[in-house]
Specification:
InterPro entries: AAA+_ATPase, AAA_lid_3, ATPase_AAA_core, ATPase_AAA_CS, MT-severing_AAA_ATPase, P-loop_NTPase, Spast_Vps4_C. The protein is built from 18 helices and nine strands. With 465 residues, the protein is α/β, with parallel strands linked by helices. The chain has three domains: 92 residues, Methane Monooxygenase Hydroxylase, Chain G, domain 1, CATH 1.20.58; 190 residues, Rossmann fold; 113 residues, Orthogonal Bundle (Helicase, Ruva Protein, domain 3), CATH 1.10.8.60. A hairpin with a 2-residue loop joins β6 and β7. α3 crosses α6 and α6 crosses α10. The chain is globular, with a radius of gyration of 28 Å. Bound molecules: adenosine-5'-triphosphate and magnesium ion (MG). The site of adenosine-5'-triphosphate (ATP) has 19 residues, from α8, α14 and α16.
C-alpha cells in the first residue's frame, strides 16, 4: 500500500475519532451520545488498520499510544452509556453515577441510608426519578466528566479506625476538631467559629499521612472523595480544569464532603519555580478558584491534602490550606504501639520489656519502615526452618506436626524442610532474636537532612502534629 494512501487512512481515522468525541461530549440525548461513541469506535478500528500496515516503527508506536488513550476514554464513555440505559430501564445493578457517589458503610445499595445533610442528587432511588434527574442534569459534557471522575473517586470506607493509627495524637486531635466535630455539630460553627476549609498533612514519606486520611474517611459522617492528582490531570487541553471544577461541583452537591487529594504537590507545585507549562498553571489557577469558592458556597466542603514535599507547594495554594499539620516520624510510644498492633495477629514470644526494647532501637524509623522490618522479622522463623537439618514431631493445637530441632536432640530425625509434606510443618513463634537479626539490614529511609527540612518548614509555615 502506498504511503500516501496509508496516511489518508490514518487522517480519516483521527478525524472520525475527533468528530465522534465531540458529538459524544456535546450530545444531550442518549442517542446522540451513543452515535458519537459509535463513530469513535469506527475511527479506532480504522486506526488499528493503519497501525497494522505502518512500517515506520516510530509512527506505529505513536498510533498504538493514541489508541490506548482513546480506548481508555471509550471505556468510561461505554460505562456511562450502560449506566444511563440501566437507570432508564429501572435496573439497579448498574447504578447511576449519583448513587455511586453516596458514601455508605453499608455495601447493599438497596439498604443504603441517606446520610445526614446529603441533598440534591442523592435523594431518590426511584428509577423514574433517577431518569428525570439524569435527563435534567445531562448538561453538555458534564456527565461525561463526572463519569471520568467516578472512576477516580474512591468512596468506599477504608475500615481504618483512629486506634489503628499509632501515636500522632496531636494530629488526630486536630483532625477530629477540624473534620468530625463540624460534621456532627454544625450548629456550633457560627460567626467567627468557621470550620476549616483546607487542611494539609505533610511530613516524611511513610509516616502515615495517607493512613490518617483513611481513618478520617472511616470515621467521618459525610461524603469522602479521595482522588489522586494523577486522576485530575488529563492529557486533553482544558479537560483538567473541567475535571477539577466538576469535582468541586459534585462535592458541593453532596455536602458535607471531604475531598482528599493525595500527593497534592504534583498538581499544585510552585508556578514560578520550574512549575512548568501553561497547562499546569491553569490547573493550579482553577484549583485556587474552586478552593476560594468565588460564586460558590464552599461551606461544608473541606479539602484535605497530603504531601511529602510541602516546600514545593505554590504559595497561594499553601495559603488555602489554612491548617498545616506536620506528621513526623513516630516517637518511642508511637513505635511501641505500632509494633504491638502489627504483632497482634502473629504468634510471638515477645515480652513487654522486649517490645519496649525494640521500640527504643527503632529511633528514626518511619511507620512504613517498621512495617518492612516487622515483615522481615516474621520471615525469620521460616528462614531458620529452611536451614535446619533435623526435625522432630511435636504436638501442636492443630495436631502432630514437624518442627525444626537441634541435631543433638534425641528425638530429631535428619531431614530437610522440603522433605515434609504440605500442612505438616510447624513454624516456631517469633522471638526477640528474630528482630535483632533483621535490624542491621532494614535501615530507616528518612535521613537527618530531610528531617531538618521538615522541621524548618514547620517552624515557618506549619504546626506540630
Ligand atoms: N502512625 C502509623 N500508625 C499505623 N500505621 C502506620 C503509621 N504510619 C505509617 N503506618 C504504616 O505505613 C504504611 C504507609 O503509610 P502511608 O501510606 O500513610 O504513608 P504516607 O505518609 O502517606 O507516605 P507518602 O508520603 O510516601 O505518601 C501504612 O499503610 C501503615 O501501615
Ligand atoms: Mg501517602
Amino acid at each position: 500500500m502506498s504511503e500516501g494512501f496509508l496516511n489518508k487512512i490514518r487522517d480519516q481515522a483521527i478525524q472520525l475519532i475527533a468528530q465522534g468525541k465531540n458529538e459524544y461530549l456535546a450530545g444531550t440525548t442518549l442517542e446522540a451520545k451513543q452515535g458519537g461513541y459509535d463513530k469513535m469506535k469506527l475511527g479506532c478500528q480504522e486506526l488499528v488498520k493503519y497501525a497494522r500496515q505502518e512500517t515506520n516503527q516510530q509512527l506505529c508506536q505513536i498510533a498504538s499510544q493514541k489508541l490506548n488513550e482513546f480506548t481508555t476514554e471509550m471505556q468510561n464513555m461505554k460505562a456511562y452509556l450502560e449506566n444511563y440505559k440501566a437507570s432508564m430501564q429501572g435496573q439497579s445493578q448498574l447504578q447511576p453515577l449519583q448513587q455511586q457517589q453516596q458514601f455508605s458503610q453499608n455495601p447493599q445499595p438497596s439498604q443504603q441510608k441517606p446520610s445526614n445533610g446529603n441533598n440534591g442528587m442523592n435523594k431518590s432511588t426511584n428509577p423514574q426519578d433517577v431518569q428525570d434527574q439524569g435527563k435534567s442534569k445531562l448538561v453538555e459534557g458534564q456527565q461525561a466528566l463526572r463519569n471520568n471522575l467516578s472512576t477516580a473517586i474512591v468512596t468506599e470506607k477504608p475500615n481504618v479506625s483512629w486506634d489503628d493509627v499509632a501515636g500522632l495524637e496531636k494530629a488526630k486531635d486536630s483532625l477530629k476538631e477540624a473534620i468530625i466535630t463540624p460534621m456532627r455539630f454544625p450548629e456550633l460553627f457560627q460567626g467567627a467559629r468557621k470550620p476549616w476549609m483546607g487542611i494539609l498533612l505533610y511530613g516524611p514519606p511513610g509516616t502515615g499521612k495517607t493512613f490518617l486520611a483513611k481513618a478520617c474517611a472511616t470515621e467521618c459522617e459525610g461524603t469522602f472523595f479521595s482522588v489522586s492528582s494523577a486522576d485530575l490531570i488529563s492529557k486533553f487541553v482544558g479537560e483538567s480544569e473541567r475535571l477539577i471544577k466538576e469535582l468541586f461541583n459534585m462535592a458541593r452537591e453532596s455536602k458535607p464532603t471531604i475531598i482528599f487529594i493525595d500527593e497534592v504537590d504534583s498538581m499544585t507545585g510552585n508556578r514560578e519555580s520550574g512549575g512548568g507549562n501553561e497547562a499546569s498553571s491553569r490547573v493550579k489557577t482553577q484549583f485556587l478558584v474552586e478552593m476560594q469558592g468565588v460564586g460558590n458556597n464552599n461551606e461544608s466542603v473541606l479539602v484535605l491534602g497530603a504531601t511529602n514535599l510541602p516546600w514545593s507547594l505554590d504559595p497561594a495554594i499553601r495559603r488555602r490550606f489554612e491548617k498545616r499539620i506536620y506528621i513526623p516520624l513516630p516517637d518511642v510510644q508511637g513505635r511501641l504501639q505500632l509494633l504491638k498492633n502489627k504483632m497482634k495477629s502473629t504468634p510471638n514470644n515477645l515480652t513487654p520489656a522486649e517490645f519496649e526494647d525494640i521500640a527504643k532501637m527503632l529511633e528514626g524509623y518511619s511507620g512504613s519502615d517498621m512495617n518492612t522490618l516487622v515483615r522481615d522479622a516474621c520471615f525469620e522463623p521460616l528462614r531458620k526452618t529452611e536451614r535446619a537439618t533435623h526435625f522432630k514431631q511435636t504436638q501442636t493445637p492443630q495436631g502432630m506436626k514437624y518442627m525444626a530441632c537441634s541435631p543433638s536432640d534425641p528425638e530429631g530425625q535428619q531431614m530437610r524442610m522440603y522433605d515434609i509434606k504440605g500442612g505438616q510443618l510447624y513454624l516456631p513463634h517469633i522471638e526477640y532474636d528474630d528482630f535483632l537479626s533483621v535490624l542491621p539490614k532494614c535501615r530507616p529511609s528518612v535521613s537527618q537532612g530531610d528531617l531538618k527540612k521538615y522541621e524548618d518548614w514547620t517552624s515557618e509555615f506549619g504546626q506540630e502534629g
